[in-house]
Amino acid sequence: MDAFLLQILNGLDKGSAYALIALGLTLIFGTLGVVNFAHGALFMIGAFCAVTLQRLLTLSYETVDPERTDFLGNPMTVETPYVEAWFGPATGGALVDWAVPLAIVLAIPVMMLVGFVMERGLIQHFYKRPHADQILVTFGLAIVLQEIVKAVYGANPIPTPAPSALRGSMDVGALVGMEAYAVVYPIWRLVYFVFAALVIGGVFAFLRFTTFGMVVRAGMADRETVGLLGIDIDKRFTLMFGLAAAVAGLAGVMYTPILSPNYHMGMDFLVLSFVVVVVGGMGSLPGAVLAGFLLGILQSFASMNEVKSLIPGIDQIIIYLVAIVILLTRPRGLMGRRGVMEE
Question: Signal peptide location in the record (predicted)?
């Protein structure tokens, strides 16, 4: 039972990242009809928003501390972060420690701006082009963004720790009535799952309960009719592209303590997330979320030593095997609309 619960938690952890990225991909495809292969790069840019804020908060200046000397008796120089000088050691230290969650404040406007520039500057010119053209141009854009990040931040992963209060582990087993310390799980991974659930719930609530969201959903179903009613649906869809970029960016921000940011992390998640979208159903938001968590859990169970000893390498291909089965039996995906991907 403890091994089962542990694999469920691992699956929810992986599935949270898959679901958030796939949700943004589906928003873009459902509103604009664009297959955006640059979406993984948005996840990467969000992660580097956290890196950037951490570096800004740790900018420091040198001062001479006469009370501290080296082995020769000379006064030592110490690095003092500007935030500690401005706000005091306690507040400044807390800002540095909580850099990752605080990066959400930076990432939202940055990712909205990046999404707007991408959509207005490039992607809008490919709305009526074949999906193959869209894939090629967005994949090329992803490579360009990846190389820019590599040039600015370097090729090596950059450790970005979680706040010190959230770096430990939690006795999850005891919470569900199991023996103490039967299932111990990192706190930050649980935080990431809760965060993903809140973001996903917020996006669905926005689309369902706001006038803006209702118009967008109507435009996704029948864009031409909504346009004939005098509504500028194109402007709303552009804002939805920005929202999708923000969702991907927030997923990247909060994932940095789990996986140290590097320039190719976007590509690593893009392929898996695109498979998630196809399995869930192109254009289906509930399908993307369901498939994200489902495939995350399947991949987690496939990574167990008992399973890998029976089928070596199954953890590396399980997602693709599921995708093949789904596409052969139900080409539009688990919750896809009839006619989508079935021609």
Answer: none
Reported as a pLDDT band with limits 50, 70 and 90, residue 338 is low
SS3 category, 73: coil
Question: How many CA atoms lie within 13 Å of 167's alpha carbon, on the beta-carbon side?
Answer: 11
**Is residue 123 in a domain?**
yes
Report the number of distinct structural domains present in the chain: 1
Distance CA 205, CA 318 (A): 32
* Residue-wise pLDDT tens digits, 60-84: 888 777 777 766 777 777 778 888 8
Residue 69 domain-assigned (yes or no):
no
**Residue of 17, 9, 100, 16 lying closest to 270 (CA atoms):** 17
pLDDT for position 1? 63
Q: How far apart are the first and last CA of the chain?
A: 45
135 three-state secondary structure: helix
Give every CB contact of residue 210 below 8 A, 6+ residues apart in sequence: none
Backbone φ, ψ for residue 171 (5° rounding)? -80, 85
- Residue 68: inside a domain: no
- 3-state per-residue secondary structure call for 166-180: HCCEEEHHHHCCCCC
Q: Of 254, 240, 279, 274, give the one whose Cα is nearest residue 40.
A: 274
CA nearest 61: which of 37, 77, 48? 77
Look at residue 339 in the predicted model and tell me its pLDDT: 52
Residue 30 placed within a domain? yes
CATH number at residue 224: 1.10.3470
Token couple for 264:
């190719």
Longest CA span, the chain: 82
Report the candidate in 256, 250, 246, 248 with the shortest Cα–Cα distance to residue 188.
256
DSSP-based helix, strand, coil % in the chain, nearest 5: 70, 5, 25
User: Please, what's the b/e burial string for 190-209 (b: 16 or more CB within 10 A of its CB; e: otherwise)?
Assistant: bbbbebbeebbeebeeebee
Enclosing domain of residue 308: 2-52+100-329
3-state SS class at 121: helix
